[in-house]
Amino acid sequence: MALPNCSLKVNRELLDPSFESYRLSLDSIPTYNVELDAAVAEVKLKDSLYTLDHVRAFGMYNYLHIDPWYEDSVYFVDSKGRVLNLTVTLDTALGKPCEMFRFESDPISCEGEQLCASLSLTSATWAALSDGIGNLTLLRTSKRGESLHIKWEPMFSDLAHVHSHVHTIEVLLLRVQKDPSDTKGSGFSISLEWITVDNSAGQGENEERKYGVRKMRMVKDKSVPHYAAVEPQGKGIVVASEKPFAFTDVDGLPLEEPPVEAMEVENSDPIYFWQQTEEDVTLNVRLPEGTTKDDICFKLAVDCLRVRVGDHAPLLDGQLFAPVDPEASTWTIKDDKSLEVSLQKRSKGLLWSEVILGDRRGEYLMSDEQKSQLQQRLSYLTSEDLNPNPEKDKPPCNAQELEDCDMFPEDSSTLMRFDGATLKPTHVVSLGSHHFLFSVRIDPSEMPAFCLRHDVEALLWQPRPNQDNDVWEHISTFNASKRDKKFATCAPNFSYAALCECLRRVFIYRQPSSVDTALFNRKQARQVWQVAKQQVANLDTNDPVLGFRATNERLFVLTANNLFVLKVNN
C-alpha cells in the first residue's frame, strides 16, 4: 500500500466564512415533460448480486449521460436496445428523443448475467458503448452538434473491425466478479480494466487499418471506486476509493514485483540511558572496558555536547534539545563501566523529549512519580463511565454527540494517481472524513472534476495532471450539505448545485446573489446584501429517478417512462 505523499490544498479565497444558510424560495421552476415510447433499460439487481459493491456500481447507476461538448444534449439507452438522444433548443417545443444507435442483439433478452448498459462520450466525434453483457463497441458519431440525425457508425466491436485513419481511445471498464479466494469477505473482487484500443495494426501500403486492443492493464481492489478517470493522452489514471487499488497484470501476464530487500536491523542495546527532573537531565553512557579518565574527551557548550573515547568515533555529538548551564553540569566515571553526565537545565520545568536532536540511540527511563503524573494528566481521556463528570473543564468525548461528518470509515478513502508507464502511484492523498459526493465534467478537454465534503461545505476539485505541485486544484465551493440523496451534481459554471431523492423531489442550491433591497440580520445587527436561495421541485411521477444531469441552464431528470427538463437559469 502506497503511503500518502501529498494533500489537497484548499483555496481560502473560495470559502465564504460569513455564509449563514440557504433561504427557501417559493419561485416556481418551469418543468417540461417528455414521455418516452419505451421504458429505460433499467437493470434490477438479482439476488445473486447482493453485496454493497453491486449496489454502488449498478444499483445507484446514473442512466442519463450528458454531452460535455454540446450543451443541453443528453443520451440514454431504452429497453429496445436503442441509444436515444434529446437535444434542447427551445423548452416549449421539446421533440421526441432521436435514435442514434441500436444494439444488434437485445441485451435484455440475452441469457446470463446482465448489467447496466453504459455510454462514454470520449470526444466530440467518438463514443464508447458497453451493452452490459460483456461487449464493448467504439462508435464514430461525427460532430454530434451539427448532425443530430446521422446515426452512429460502429468502428470496433467483438463482431466487426472497420478500417479508418490512425486513432487511439483509452477506456476504463469496471467489473465485479466472484473471487473463490476471498473466503473472509463478500466473495467478490473489483477490477478496473484499462484498455487501449487503436488501429495501428496493418500499416502497410495495401493493408487496411483495423481496430484492436493494443494494451490491457488490470487494476484490482476490494471496493468499487468512487471516481476513476483516464488522463488526456492516456498518460495515467486517477482513482478514488475506500481501499487502495494496485496493478496486477498487463496483457494477461502478472506483474513481476522486484524482490524486496530485507532491511538491516541492528539489535544493539542502547548506548546510553537518561532520566530527567524539572531541573536537570542525567545520562549514563556505556563505555568500553578498561576506559580511564584520561581516555575521555568531554566538550559541553550551552547548546551542544560531544563525548569521545580515545581516537574512536564520538559516542555523543550534536545539538542539545534545550540550553544547559555548562558551569553547573558535571561528569564522572562509575564502576569503570559507564560515564554519568549531569546537565543542568537553564529552563526549569521544561520536559525534554530527547537529549541530542535526532539521536535515537538512547533509552528514556521514567520514574514512578513521573508515570503517575502522566496518568493523571491523561485520565480525562478514558473512563469506565460514558460521561462521569460533564461539568469538568475537559469532559470525556461523547460518541453520541458526533455528527455524520465526524465519523471515519473503517478504511480511510484514498485518492491516487498512477503513472501510465510505470503503473506505480505517483501522488497519494488520504481523504479521511472527506466523503465523496459526485463527479462532473466541467471542461470537455480535461478530466472530470470531483466534489468532496469538507465539514459542512462541498468543495469541487479539478485534476491537473500536468501540474506537479498542485495536481488537484480547488475550483469552487458549495454550501449545500444535505446527505439524503440519490444523485448530486452541479452546473459547469458553478452557478448552482442540485441533488435529487429516489422519488419526486429535486433540490436546487444557488450560489449567493445580490438583492435589490438590503435585508437586516437582527442577531448580528448588520445588513445583508446577498442571499443564497434554495428551491424544491416536485416531479409529476411515481417512478424512481434513474438519471440526473445538469447544464448551466437546465436540469435533466430521467425516470423509467419520462424525461423531465427543469429550466433553472435563463
Topology of this structure?
Elements (H helix, E strand, L loop, with lengths): L22 E2 L6 E5 L16 H8 L5 E2 L6 E5 L4 E6 L10 E5 L15 E3 L5 E5 L5 E5 L12 E4 L11 E11 L9 E14 L8 E12 L5 E4 L5 E6 L4 E5 L2 E2 L17 E5 L3 E7 L9 E5 L3 E6 L6 E4 L10 E5 L3 E7 L17 E3 L3 H11 L34 E7 L5 E8 L3 E5 L8 E6 L2 E7 L8 E7 L8 E4 L5 E5 L4 E6 L2 E9 L4 E6 L1 E6 L6 E6 L3 E6 L2 E6 L3
Parallel strand pairs: 1-37, 18-25
Antiparallel strand pairs: 2-40, 3-4, 4-5, 5-6, 7-8, 8-9, 9-10, 11-12, 12-13, 13-16, 14-15, 15-26, 16-17, 18-19, 19-24, 20-21, 21-22, 23-24, 26-27, 28-29, 29-30, 30-31, 32-33, 33-34, 34-37, 35-36, 38-39, 39-40
Can you characterise this structure?
The chain is mainly β and 570 residues long. The protein has a domain at 272-360: Immunoglobulin-like (Sandwich). The protein contains 2 helices and 40 strands. The protein has a 5-stranded mixed β-sheet, with no helix packed on it. It has a 5-stranded antiparallel β-sheet with strand order 11-12-13-16-17. A hairpin with an 8-residue loop joins strand 12 (188-201) and strand 13. The two termini are 49 Å apart. Mean pLDDT is 82; it is low at 158-166 and 260-266.
